[in-house]
């Protein structure tokens, strides 16, 4: 499929906008209820179509999407990549757009390969395309609050330890998704310990996961990178996801 893959921006292919959300994927259902990102993808598609990449296969069907946003990392009071990663970056991008602030950095926000098209090298091509698109837009940096793809297999391992785990013999990171970034020229910068947040009642979490949520404390949820904290007394549960900041010098 790689030879037949066509990668363009949504600005060039606006007719694919509706397909962005109907494309089959393997994201955990509870992640659709992230506090900040609930409507973020539609907003990004509307405001920054030139920063949304779409990949179509030989039949013209959408097989991958990659959303990113421009923001002013160098603005007063920022300068450092935030510990609240994904959430904070989206807020900065929205604030900068509202106030007409000139962006200096692009952040990847979502990179998804359709179910059935995975493990074909498409993810690596999309990451490289994001990098090239940012460079073509005149930006000097691309950053990404990466969600390591194998971390869910070790929910009790601190992300700080997981992200710097001894590299393989070929010098690439242990995690498959971090390896994709490394091959595209990205370098692990830091950990964003509170990058994304999902909060819900116990009833909501039961519907999202099919789990009973009937015990106090941490609950291991399939697809979650760390345990979800359950409070029976207060009848809610909170998931605070850590991500890994990857930086590309363009």
TrEMBL record:
InterPro entries: Acyl_CoA_acyltransferase. Keywords: Transferase. SUPFAM superfamilies: Acyl-CoA N-acyltransferases (Nat). GO terms for molecular function: transferase activity. It comes from the Bacteria. It comes from Streptomyces caelestis. The keyword Transferase applies. This is Acetyltransferase-like protein.
